[in-house]
């Protein structure tokens, strides 16, 4: 049995407080992504687990282009 490759990464997503819920809904639709924390100031802690490093990069790039994501 070959070992399974697992990649885990995290990022902080910044949005305006009034857009926090909309951005959370967009992120929660992505497979393998979990929100592990949030603040009233518009910050989300996002964690992604995947068997491919390129998938992590692709998902984080996708999140960066969501409407209302500042950084």
Run of helices and strands: EHEEH
Low-pLDDT sequence parts: none
Across the major sheet, the strand order is 1-3-2
| Main sheet properties | 3 strands, antiparallel
Can you give the mean pLDDT?
93
How many individual β-strands?
3
Question: Structural class, from helix and strand content?
Answer: alpha+beta
Percent strand: 25-35%
> How far from one another are the termini?
41 Å
Overall radius of gyration: 13 Å
Q: Helix proportion of residues, in percent? A: 25-40%
Give the overall shape.
elongated
Number of helices: 2
Describe this structure in words.
With 71 residues, the protein is an alpha+beta fold. It has 2 helices and 3 strands; from the N terminus they run E-H-E-E-H. The protein has helices spanning 20-28, 53-64, and strands at 7-14, 33-38, 43-50. A 3-stranded antiparallel beta sheet has the order 1-3-2, covered by helices on one side. The longest helix has 12 residues, at 53-64. The protein is elongated and about 50 Å long. 13% of the residues are buried. The mean pLDDT is 93.
Tell me the layout of helices and strands.
Elements (H helix, E strand, L loop, with lengths): L6 E8 L5 H9 L4 E6 L4 E8 L2 H12 L7
Antiparallel strand pairs: 1-3, 2-3
């Amino acid at each position: 049995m070959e070992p399974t490759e697992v990649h885990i990464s995290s990022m902080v997503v910044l949005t305006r407080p009034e857009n926090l819920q909309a951005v959370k809904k967009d992120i929660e639709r992505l497979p393998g992504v979990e929100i592990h924390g949030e603040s009233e100031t518009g910050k989300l802690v996002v964690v992604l687990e995947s068997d491919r490093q390129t998938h992590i990069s692709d998902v984080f790039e996708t999140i960066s282009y969501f409407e209302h994501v500042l950084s």
